[in-house]
Amino acid sequence: MSDSKTLRNQLRIKTGVVNRLGKEHALYMKEAEENTRKVDTLVSSGTADEWDVKAAKRLQDESGRMIVDVRERLEKAADDLRDLVASTVGEPGVGESEEWANADKALELLAA
């Protein structure tokens, strides 16, 4: 796997996975907040149908489970990318490539 083109391709793929999962995590967090507000509104109104409240709570629970799932997948993908970045630092044609810089940037954004 020391081929520079293969390493750059792996960096590009793993960076894309980390970026996609980061966006997914942010969207599920936003969805969970919206679902929490919806449940609170339904409960506080007192006029909501019991089925509507249960359905909203199910959505809230599902969002919570998805947050945990995406976070675990994101952590694994970030670890894989970190390992690949660390192993390619001294590789000629890879350590100074655009793909390596993008991977490093994605990891920095994730840490922030």
UniProtKB/TrEMBL annotation:
One of its GO terms (molecular function) is beta-tubulin binding. Keywords: Chaperone, Cytoplasm, Cytoskeleton, Microtubule. The keyword Transferase does not apply. One of its GO terms (biological process) is post-chaperonin tubulin folding pathway. Its main location: cytoplasm. One of its GO terms (cellular component) is cytosol. It is found in: Cytoplasm, Cytoskeleton. InterPro entries: TBCA, TBCA_sf. The keyword Cytoplasm applies. Supercomplex made of cofactors A to E. Cofactors A and D function by capturing and stabilizing tubulin in a quasi-native conformation. Cofactor E binds to the cofactor D-tubulin complex; interaction with cofactor C then causes the release of tubulin polypeptides that are committed to the native state. Belongs to the TBCA family. This is Tubulin-specific chaperone A. It comes from Dacryopinax primogenitus (strain DJM 731) (Brown rot fungus).
